[in-house]
Design a protein that fits this description.
Layout lengths: L17 H17 L6 E4 L9 E4 L2 H14 L5 H21 L20
Helix pairs in contact: 1-2, 1-3, 2-3
Length: 119
């Protein structure tokens, strides 16, 4: 008997995987935000047919690895498309974190405050 996917293969483009681009960027952003890839968290599925409802991870990168595998098990992508997409997502997260997600500084000594001007 030949291998069969877990779901009917949808009409998605194979290269690159959108799900892995998203999960790669999201998991890298979490690691960047916390300053480590060692972050404990759980994800719960609301899908009624899910066999395992809650999965617990100790690293965001472990979740990213699972998303690569699940897209293959579902018959949606080949591994190279998933791995390339995960890498794309990580690079996007790295760029966004460096250029946009910066610390907010609270400056209490703002001399340009116009609220008290008496003109």
């Amino acid at each position: 008997m030949a291998w069969q996917p877990l779901i009917n293969t949808p009409n998605y483009p194979d290269y690159t995987s959108g799900a892995n681009s998203l999960s790669g960027s999201m998991t890298r952003m979490l690691a960047n935000f916390f300053g480590t890839d060692e972050v404990n968290f759980s994800i719960t599925s609301k899908h009624p047919l899910a066999i395992q409802k809650t999965r617990t991870y100790s690293r965001p990168s472990d979740l990213a690895r699972d998303v690569v595998n699940v897209r293959i098990y579902q018959g949606i992508h080949f591994r190279f498309a998933d791995v390339a997409a995960r890498r794309q997502g990580r690079l996007v997260a790295k760029w966004a974190f460096k250029h946009f997600l910066r610390p907010v500084h609270d400056n209490h000594d703002d001399d340009d405050d116009d609220d008290d001007d008496e003109d």
